[in-house]
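Hey, resending since the last one bounced:
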Amino acid sequence: METGDIVFVVQEEGHELFKRSGDDLIMERDIPLIDALTGFSIQLNHLDGRSIVIESKKGDIVTPGDIKEIPGLGMPCFSRSYDFGSLYIKFNLIFPTTLSKAQITNLRNIFEPTPEPMVDDATEKVVAEPFNEERQRQRKDDQRNQQRYAHEEDSDEGPGIRTNCSNQ
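The structure tokens again:
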């Protein structure tokens, strides 16, 4: 037989937990607010089958979108197979949907509350509501329709009548 080159084509498969960026691995993790404030401990199975526990430093607080780095838990480096990239974890915080009166009182005792605004008889108080995308879309559609109608009424022809002006 004649000798020759062997060509390998390697296709990388996607993974439900990790994304690759060169020698680094990136993952997202949801954690409850209590763990973000008091410390977290995450157990995961790495690509090589190892079970790993990742903990936060004592006193560290995780804020929404924070990214933590764990050096050496990425992929093997291309040119240095003994060296590994980093694992990056982006944190998404899970906030409670409701709090009891007792929980609110306890939180206000733990944290320094925001000072109450100075209110007099001329001050109007309003309540913030949850964002409603459909209501916003409808309001914008109504505004566009009102502007279109006002523009048509301002023209000489009145609403709904359009003319083309051409050079003669």
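The chain has a mean pLDDT of 86.

Sorry for the duplicate.
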